[in-house]
Amino acid sequence: MRSAQRQATIGGEERETVEVLTARYGAAYRWLVTSAGLVGMIAMVLSSTSVSVAVPQVMGAFGVGQDKAQWLATAFFASTTATMLLNAWLITRFGHRTTFVATLFVFAVAAIAGGLAPNMETVILSRVLQGAAAGVVQPLSMAIIFTVFPPERRGTAMGLFGLGVVLAPAFGPALGGLVIDTFSWRAVFFLPLPLCGIALLIGSIFMPVRRADASPAAFDMIGVTLLAIALACTLNGFASGQREGWSSDIIVIQLTTGALATLAFIVWELNTRSPLLDLTLFANPQFSSAAIVGFIFGFGMFGSIFVVAIFVQLVQGYTPTKAGVLLIPAGLLMAAAFPVVGRLIDSVPAHLPIMSGLVLFGAGFLMMAGADANTSFWTFVMFLLVNRLGLSLIVPSLNTGALRSLRADQVGQGAGIINFTRMLGGACGVNLLVVYLEMRTRVYTDALTATQTWSNQTSRALLDSVERLLSESGVGGAHQAAGAIHYLGQVVQAQANAMGFQDTFVAAAAIAFAALLPAWIMGRSRNGVVPAPVPPAARPVPPTSGRTVQGGRLPEAAE
Question: For residue 403, what pLDDT band results from cuts at 50, 70 and 90?
Fold first, then answer.
């Protein structure tokens, strides 16, 4: 019998569907394919955050400021956001296996290019390609895991998925910092390559292939183009606004173009027969509320990881390794909490742990807002523990709550949209939090500089003390005053940096608390799976009944 089954499935790779592979490997198959998806996803999420601790080194290597250096993260998240919506079309066109293997290969090549980059432009391009690959693999992994587990085990399955989503950012900066201090910032690009190799091997065996009866929809090139223009113009406009001037022609043109492209994208997706983004899913209040929470969660999570890594290096003087190690205790806490939360949400409404997690998430940011150069290592670790405990409650609950409200034929699109909103939030979070940080730092720099006058007795005493120390060190009289003034400028800038970061953490807390409203609406909305569509014979066929979506025909109930 085994021989007959093998002959029936080896004759063509296209026959190795989920059903065939499940029959071949039994109950173990769900864990085999889950391991492939998780390893590939962890490799890519690891890359998304491990580079954050290299920002000060990259700024020094290429002589760029924070507004350009933030593209190390923003370029990754923006391209991830754009390609996430291609997931359903790619799977139905090429199958899980081919899509998974091809995107991992692209990711590995881009990682090597980033590590060998001769200039900042090449580094940013490599991050764009890495993010593009990650945008395909993450929803692919989420959808396949959700599919192979039975309904009563999907909470646990999403707990495993969330474990990969959050543990990689927790340990990524620590591993990245260790690699940077041991070798150089370039070596951090090579960090995920071993995991890519493992995922390629496992995925090429256990990922299912395209079904013979799958018929992909037309590729939505206009939708992809409009989305890319919207993201590029909007994010670059905000990133460059502080440097170029918010009223400058280039910034006004970029932000206007981004807004128009966004509006055109929405209008196009609502009217095209083959939409990249099935906006009809947002008519489901439970799903749309989960998408809003996912956006705000991504905004706070990825934005804070980037800002914290810079804060502890610039304000507290940590090395890249110490900056990364700071996040390890929080990562261990999440490793312990995720399996428990995964089992918990199989028996409680998803919005309850989400709301509890958001409160802790915001509270952690408020604690960080009180940190400065004198805050101890373990005190900041405590702040992060509170913040990351909130993440542990949010991630699996959010994924499960969103997908529970959809029919089986909507899960693929729903998984793509939830990941899309989370990564869009991450791109906006890094971009806008850095913009806000620069604005607040500039305000405090100007305000503190204005107080440094001859009538300021504290500043005069500091200058006299520094001049005396320089004199005792053998510095000539002509250089003592200049050295003292230079030191005073560094003190003013350091204080302005610390105050700017504090304001940024307060802003992140406010954003986390703002997500409580959609989370509450998510709980108030009708729970359970959307009912199956009414048979065509029971109702008139609408004029748009032929409308399709990327990855298959649009369910008539959604029209």
Answer: confident
Task: Fill in the amino acid letter for 225.
Answer: T
* Residue 363, domain extent: 2-219+274-445+495-524
> Under DSSP, is residue 97 helix (H, G, I), strand (E, B) or coil?
helix
Cα-trace Rg, the chain: 25
CB distance 396 to 341 below 8 Å: yes
- Using DSSP, state whether 549 is helix, strand or coil: strand
Q: Is 420 helix (H, G, I), strand (E, B) or coil?
A: helix
- Whether residue 184 lies inside any domain: the answer is yes
Q: Give the single-character DSSP code of 210.
A: -
The reply to whether 77 and 121 lie within a common domain is: yes
Helices (runs of H) and strands (runs of E) counted in the chain: 22, 2
What residues form DSSP beta bridges with 200?
none
* Distances in whole angstroms, Cα of residue 236 to Cα of each of 68, 85, 252, 257, 296: 9, 21, 11, 11, 20
For 217-252, how does the pLDDT look when each residue is reduced to its tens digit (9 = 90+)?
Answer: 667 888 888 988 998 899 888 878 877 888 888 899
- 239 with 70: CB under 8 angstroms? yes
CA dist., res. 28 & res. 149, Å (int): 11
Does residue 266 sit within a domain?
A: yes
Looking at the structure, tell me whether residues 405 and 389 fall in a common domain. Answer: yes
